[in-house]
TrEMBL record:
It comes from the Bacteria. SUPFAM superfamilies: Xylose isomerase-like. It comes from Lederbergia citrea. Keywords: Isomerase. Residues 20-252 form the Xylose isomerase-like TIM barrel domain. This is Sugar phosphate isomerase/epimerase. Pfam families: AP_endonuc_2 (PF01261). InterPro entries: IolE/XylAMocC-like (IPR050312), Xyl_isomerase-like_sf (IPR036237), Xyl_isomerase-like_TIM-brl (IPR013022).
């Protein structure tokens, strides 16, 4: 089992801390989603002018960067915004080449009042342009089950439109179950052959009118995480199990020193139970 965490969970950690804590807590990789306040990390010296030093830190620690989690959205009707996303994709593709990273996470995005089929057609058109870059750099785009593309049938339709070996699915195991009441069995049945990467989090229902749920340490909520793990392992999934601890957006949840250590303990326990 390969474990990683996204840097969304440690927005105040510098590179040395990220690397040392990843090793200390038993992780295999780090998924970059921002660094010290900058969400688009390719703008920073650590991933541009000083990139060789960063590569050495990861190599010396035997850590991978399995995915770069971008801010790219597939749905946009603005040509200027699309050009910006294409430039962002090119920047992340260059980083993938440097770090031997196979994946770039992308969002479907909010479609607002656009009819679903029209939105799918727009996404398909934009995606064709993005996939030219992905194919050039031999890197795959991962559409996350998120926002207006959480339902498995919507993601499946985009996959059918794309028809590409460079376009797959990131199953955020939390969102479909929590936000659209989709069973993990249905998610896997519909998307399983395309799921190459996963994000993990837990929560419980609250009266919060904005979100309707509260994030919590894994195992303290009611997301059926053990069930999801078994579905993946029983079907031969060999990708990463990545903790997406959203400390950046939820500042009141536990500090990364607590959550990151707890995650590896929890997942190793689940893995042990699954083989009994």
């Amino acid at each position: 089992m390969k474990l990683a965490f996204t840097t969304l969970g440690c927005p105040k950690w510098d590179l040395e801390t990220i690397v040392s804590k990843a090793v200390e807590y038993g992780y295999d990789g780090v998924d970059f989603r921002g660094y010290l306040g900058e969400m688009e990390i390719y703008r920073l010296p650590e991933f541009s002018t000083d990139i060789e030093n960063t590569k050495k830190k990861f190599k010396d620690a035997s850590l991978e960067i399995p995915c770069f989690s971008s801010s790219i959205r597939l749905f946009t009707t603005s040509e200027a915004e699309l050009e910006g996303f294409l430039d962002e994709l090119n920047q992340y593709a260059l980083l993938c080449k440097e770090f031997n990273t196979p994946y770039i996470r992308v969002f479907g995005g909010k479609i607002e009042d656009t009819p679903r089929q029209d939105a799918i057609n727009i996404v398909a058109d934009n995606l064709r342009k993005m996939l030219k870059i992905a194919e050039e750099y031999q890197v795959s785009l991962l559409l996350e089950t998120h926002d207006d593309w959480t339902n498995c049938e919507y993601v499946e339709e985009v996959l059918k439109q794309a028809k590409s070996n460079y376009f797959h699915v990131l199953w955020d195991v939390h969102h479909p179950y929590r936000t659209v009441n989709e069973s993990p069995e249905l998610t896997w049945k519909t998307l399983g052959k395309s799921i190459k990467y996963t994000h993990w989090k837990d929560s419980y229902i609250t009266d919060d009118t904005k979100r309707g749920y509260q994030l919590c340490l894994l195992g303290e909520g009611d997301i059926p995480l053990e069930r999801m793990y078994r579905i993946l392992k029983d079907n031969g999934y060999s990708g990463y199990f990545t903790l997406e601890w959203e400390k950046k957006w939820w500042p009141d949840i536990e500090e990364p020193e607590i959550a990151f250590r707890q995650y590896t303990t929890f997942m190793n326990t689940v893995a042990g139970e699954a083989v009994k």
